């Protein structure tokens, strides 16, 4: 039979004035840094006389047991009767930067066990142990139930140090979270110009691809020079000739296989015009060229251009001086040849009547514009206008002139036969 009773007051009530020294070391391997709670200024004299006090000496590693229980908002005399568990928490919040270096422990205390008897069967902290012995040759055992206060030391640590890489990653992740990365990159590319990073060509090309100017009065103009492989996109307003305007963007020529096969088949077919028809066209072309014979304008590079009424039409077939595209055999066969143009017209409109000279000349002229545009530009994006050079325009007009002698000129809104061409009446 066992009998247990609680001694009141507690047997070790005087332990309230006992002191304990807590040694704690902490390390942060990422920063190759270690520290301990016995700070550098704490010598033997200091440790023999100091006792932890949150107000006067918060970093002293020597603690009075009664003060620990009091910091946990408990009464040592009452707690010693049934026992309990007190947590001693050591928290390290370290700033390892040189200018703002700080790495000292902060102590806090709280009770861990349940002390209310109405919420648990055995409140506080207790444990049993037995003592065996012989009395008069008989083995006997005395069972003890001990009560006490247990102190658990818990250490928490966190250290930080400034890092430019981590800062950039943090800023980038924050911007991406709020969908601001694209806005920042757009601003950087379009405003910051540096030869080693974002040149003017890259800036103009990016701007042309990224942004589209909404201007209902002026559509983007597409320009194709015979001595350049790409197509230039020029946007207004125009304060000088189109020949001298800098492109807002450039893009490669896009040709469909069907269009390429059609052009090659037309070029490979031998001419079948009669000699009388050929001589009449050549004579007519010569007469028209004499009417418009004049010195080439300053923006001309091929020597075959004529003055044009608007800045948007002042365009040569070349960027630098050289032979005119209108003098090439391909231009003659693909753009000016009457049989080629009639074949294209009848292919697109099988019931088209080409017997009337006035109407057929107009159709042939517009078909020539279409042939040139398809040959030199390929597929042009909707909403844009492909500009035919002045030299080529006048070669077409000389071969297929207007009876009234009046031409509308560049008119992107009126498109004949294809979506993007340069038409006139």
UniProtKB/TrEMBL annotation:
Any Pfam family matching the protein: P2X_receptor
Biased composition (Basic and acidic residues): 273-292
Signal sequence coordinates: none
InterPro entries in alphabetical order: P2RX7_C, P2X7_purinoceptor, P2X_extracellular_dom_sf, P2X_purnocptor, P2X_receptor
Membrane topology category: Multi-pass membrane protein
BP GO terms, sorted: calcium ion transmembrane transport; response to ATP
Ion transport keyword on record: yes
Sequence segments annotated as region (Disordered): 272-292
GO MF assignments: ATP binding; extracellularly ATP-gated monoatomic cation channel activity; purinergic nucleotide receptor activity
Any single GO CC term annotated in Swiss-Prot or TrEMBL for this entry: plasma membrane
Subcellular location: Endomembrane system; Membrane
P2X purinoreceptor 7 intracellular domain span: 222-410
Keywords (A to Z) from UniProt: Ion channel, Ion transport, Ligand-gated ion channel, Membrane, Receptor, Transmembrane, Transmembrane helix, Transport
Family label: Belongs to the P2X receptor family.
Function statement: Receptor for ATP that acts as a ligand-gated ion channel.
Protein name in the entry: P2X purinoceptor
The encoding gene: P2rx7
């Amino acid at each position: 039979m066992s009998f247990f009773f609680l001694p009141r007051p507690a047997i070790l009530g005087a332990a309230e004035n006992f002191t304990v020294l807590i040694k704690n070391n902490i390390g942060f391997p990422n920063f190759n840094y270690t520290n301990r709670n016995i700070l550098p200024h704490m010598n033997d004299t200091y440790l023999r006389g100091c006792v932890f006090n949150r107000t006067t000496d918060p970093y002293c590693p020597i603690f009075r047991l009664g003060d620990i229980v009091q910091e946990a908002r408990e009464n040592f005399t009452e707690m010693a009767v049934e026992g309990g568990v007190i947590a001693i928490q050591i928290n390290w919040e370290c700033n390892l930067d040189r200018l703002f270096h700080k790495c000292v422990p902060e102590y806090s205390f709280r009770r861990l066990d349940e002390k209310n008897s109405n919420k648990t069967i055995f409140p506080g902290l207790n444990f049993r142990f037995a003592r065996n012995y012989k009395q008069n040759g008989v083995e006997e055992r005395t069972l003890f139930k001990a009560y006490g206060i247990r102190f658990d030391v818990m250490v928490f640590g966190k250290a930080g140090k400034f890092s430019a890489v981590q800062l950039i990653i943090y800023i980038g992740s924050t911007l991406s979270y709020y969908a601001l990365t694209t806005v920042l990159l757009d601003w950087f590319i379009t405003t910051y110009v540096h030869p080693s990073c974002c040149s003017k060509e890259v800036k103009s090309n990016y701007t042309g691809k990224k942004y589209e100017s909404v201007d209902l009065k002026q559509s983007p103009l597409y320009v194709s020079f015979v001595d350049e492989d790409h197509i230039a996109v020029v946007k207004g307003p125009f304060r000088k000739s189109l020949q001298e305007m800098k492109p807002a963007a450039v893009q490669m020529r896009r040709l469909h296989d069907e269009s390429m096969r059609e052009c090659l088949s037309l070029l490979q077919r031998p001419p079948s015009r009669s000699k009388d028809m050929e001589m009449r066209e050549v004579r007519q072309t010569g007469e028209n060229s004499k009417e418009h014979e004049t010195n080439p304008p300053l923006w001309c590079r091929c020597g075959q251009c004529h003055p044009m009424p608007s800045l948007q039409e002042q365009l040569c077939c070349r960027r630098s001086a050289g032979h005119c595209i209108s003098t090439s055999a391909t231009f003659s066969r693909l753009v000016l040849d009457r049989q080629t143009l009639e074949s294209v017209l009848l292919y697109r409109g099988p019931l088209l009547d080409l017997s009337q000279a006035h109407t057929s000349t107009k159709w042939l002229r517009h078909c020539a514009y279409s042939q040139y545009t398809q040959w030199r530009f390929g597929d042009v994006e909707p909403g844009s206008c492909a500009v035919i050079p002045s030299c080529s325009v006048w070669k077409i007009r000389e071969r297929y002139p207007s009876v009234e002698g009046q031409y509308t000129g560049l008119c992107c809104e009126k498109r004949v036969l294809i979506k993007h061409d340069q038409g006139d009446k």
